[in-house]
Design goal:
Elements lengths: L4 H11 L3 E5 L3 H14 L3 E5 L1 H7 L1 H15 L3 E8 L2 H10 L3 E5 L5 H17 L4 E5 L5 E6 L15 H11 L3 E4 L5 E4 L7 H8 L5 E4 L7 H9 L2 E6 L1 H17 L6 H4 L1 H18 L6
Parallel strand pairs: 1-2, 1-10, 2-3, 3-4, 4-5, 5-7, 6-8, 7-9, 9-10
The chain binds glyceraldehyde-3-phosphate and zinc ion (ZN).
The site of glyceraldehyde-3-phosphate has 15 residues, from strand 3, strand 8, strand 10 and helix 10.
Length: 288
């Protein structure tokens, strides 16, 4: 029988590796990630944010992932990332997603817990093995912000371990997005990861810890986070930069070219290279 995403998380935690969640919004980005998975024999986790899914469409994302699963024989899972409402996650569950992330960080805590609980029930109904919750927002934006300093953080911005344990207990989510210093997007500067805080959260017995804002985080810190209980690291900006900047270069170099099959392969290849480097960092190669 095929293993669920949850089973991969359990194994990753036991063995000290993680899955990168590769966020994509088009077939060609997905193709690059799949090629990396094939080359490295890595299970794959694909993510779509509300923006990604708005362009991709839920049905296309689900069917394309199903196509690649059949074509390659790889375990490939699809997570709805940063779903901001129950309704959007309900549509993703109905469309056939394998995992749901309810990002209720902008709701008052009680409301966040109440919606997360409903998402957990929804997931059970659809045999979805992983529901991720979030109450402490990871700052930044999904962009290349190389020119900007990282936003200033205070202790309040970091996930508090006691609150984390309570949130997980009350909501029933198995997986928690934690804020320990990563940022969404790539900035000129970074904050060192607060590994001590991660350890404190980990010690509270929360099943699975998730890092958002993978892009731009120093490799060594990511590895340390994995050794302290992180089983999933989300990556979006890196893949967007690889895809889009390569596309811009290709068009600049070949201004008269109009055939997509001549224009897009370099972007697919660039995404593949980045995905391969992430698979290497998180240690998911040969874990099928
Ligand atoms: O949910 C998506 C991620 O947290 C991606 O963050 O764009 O910094 O890689 P990133
Ligand atoms: Zn995120």
């Amino acid at each position: 029988m095929k293993k669920s995403l949850k089973e991969y998380f359990v194994r990753a935690k036991e063995e000290g590796w993680a899955l990168a969640q590769f966020n994509v919004s088009c077939a060609e980005q997905l193709q690059g990630v799949v090629e990396a998975g094939v080359q490295s024999h890595s299970p794959l986790l694909i993510g779509t944010s509300e923006g990604d899914a708005g362009f991709f469409t839920l049905a296309f994302a689900v069917n394309l992932v199903a196509f690649w699963k059949k074509e390659t024989g790889l375990p490939i899972f699809l997570n709805f990332d940063h779903g901001k409402s129950f309704e959007v996650l309900e549509r993703a569950a109905q469309a056939g997603y394998d995992a749901l992330h309810f990002d209720g960080s902008r709701f008052p805590l009680e409301e966040n817990v109440a919606i997360a609980k409903r998402v957990v029930i929804l997931a059970r109904k659809h045999r979805i093995s992983v529901v991720e919750g979030e109450f402490s927002e990871v700052p930044g934006g999904h962009s290349d912000l190389h020119e900007q300093e990282a936003p200033v953080l205070t202790d309040q911005d970091y996930t508090n371990s006691e609150d984390a344990a309570e949130f997980v207990k009350k909501s029933g989510v198995g997986s928690l997005a934690v804020m320990v210093g990563t940022l969404h997007g790539i900035f000129k500067t970074t904050h060192p990861l607060n590994i001590k805080r991660l350890q404190e959260i980990s010690e509270r017995g929360i099943e699975f810890l998730v890092l958002h804002g993978g892009s731009g985080t120093p490799e060594q810190e990511l590895k340390e986070a994995i050794q302290n209980g992180v089983v999933k690291i989300n990556v979006s900006t890196d893949l967007r930069i690889a895809f889009t900047n390569t596309l811009k270069e290709t068009l600049e170099e070949n201004p008269t070219e109009i055939a997509p099959y001549n224009i897009l392969p370099k972007s697919v290849e660039a995404v593949k290279r980045i995905a391969l480097s992430w698979i290497e960092i998180v240690g998911s190669a040969n874990k099928i």
